[in-house]
Specification:
six-stranded parallel beta sheet, Gfo/Idh/MocA_Oxidoreductases, single chain, 9 helices, Gfo/Idh/MocA family protein, NAD(P)-bd_dom_sf, 2 domains, Rossmann fold, 15 strands, Dihydrodipicolinate Reductase, domain 2, Gfo/Idh/MocA-like_OxRdtase_N, alpha/beta, 321 residues
Length: 321
């Protein structure tokens, strides 16, 4: 079992602590929180060992799980990496692109592994259809959330849209060519609602909308590709796969047949991929343990986390144009 320590015991940090405590792949050594009062409160309530010195905790573990506010991600990760510890770091990887690129260099220098907490990659609905998403040419995403003060220290792009940016980058497999975007601040000092159009060099276009001031929650993505339409509901964990193939010469009574203007006939059929129930946060943490133990690439590498941050920051920069 890998010895692990958690930095940060806020809302998400407490979830990580609980899951790591339950995991058969980690031994939870303890946690550090900059707020000593909160740290002792969490320790008293749940029984986890509280370290009042961040370096002491890092020295006693193999893996450091960083669940602190984004502004402190880099400094926490740097301390861990320089001590030769593997790092799991919540999204976004760091506050700035320069910090992320510096962290990549540090990780390579010290030969450590790192994974970024883009948890939607482990959503069972996305897992069920990811292999079916092949060369999508148009993608539309909506990630809407009711207002919650937690997370408003960063623009909605870094808080919510970056989930979809990462998922899109993982399936498109092409460099970004052009970005147009707009964002509006309603409640916070940073944009609360944003829309981005991302064009890729291979011709794919992605239209992303994110809001943290909606009246209802929604997390849906739609992928359009040659002869297929794939819808993923990340919130309800449901998928819809609609495909087309050349129509048979003698279609059955219940076959759905479409004919275009050129007279080409296509048969419409539906697939129902099996969706396995899982705990996405536990899965991302445990697959990272597997990557360390087998010396393989983490599912969401530091490089991929950096690429998602780069595009997210380019979206924010496009607000000014």
């Amino acid at each position: 079992m890998l010895k692990v320590g958690v930095l940060g015991a806020g809302h998400l940090g407490k979830i990580h602590l609980r899951l790591l405590h339950q995991s058969q792949k980690y031994e939870l050594i303890g946690f550090y929180d900059a707020d000593e009062i909160n740290g002792k409160k969490v320790s008293d309530e749940f029984g986890y060992s509280y370290f009042d010195n961040i370096n002491k905790l890092i020295d006693n573990v193999d893996v450091v799980d960083i669940v602190t506010p984004t502004l402190s991600h880099y400094e926490c990760a740097k301390k861990a990496v320089e001590k030769g510890k593997h790092i799991f770091i919540e999204k976004p990887i760091t506050n700035t692109l320069e910090e992320a690129e510096s962290l990549l260099d540090l990780a390579q220098t010290h030969n450590i592994k790192g994974q970024v907490g883009h948890v939607e990659r482990f959503n069972p609905a996305f897992i069920a259809v990811k292999d079916k998403i092949q060369n999508p040419m148009f993608i539309e995403t909506h990630r809407l959330a009711e207002f919650n003060p937690r997370g408003t220290d960063v623009p909605v792009v870094l808080d919510l849209m970056i989930h979809d940016i990462d998922a899109i980058l993982s399936v498109v497999g092409s460099n970004v060519k052009r970005i147009n975007a707009s964002g509006v601040s309603v409640i916070s000092n940073s944009p609360d609602i944003a829309n981005a159009r991302i064009e890729f060099e291979n011709g794919c276009v992605a239209n992303l909308t994110a809001s943290r001031i909606s009246l209802k929650n929604m997390r849906k993505s739609r992928f359009f590709q040659k002869d297929a339409y794939i819808s993923v509901d990340f919130l309800e964990k449901k998928v819809e796969v609609v495909k087309m193939k050349d129509a048979p010469e003698s279609p059955g009574d219940f076959d759905m047949i479409l004919q275009n203007a050129e007279g080409v006939k296509k048969q419409i059929y539906f697939e129902n991929p099996e969706i396995d129930t899982n705990n996405a946060i536990l899965d991302e943490l445990e697959t990272f343990a597997d990557a360390i133990n087998t010396n393989t690439e983490p599912i969401v590498s530091l490089t991929q986390g950096t690429n998602a941050l780069r595009v997210a920051l380019e979206v924010i920069e496009a607000f000014k144009n």
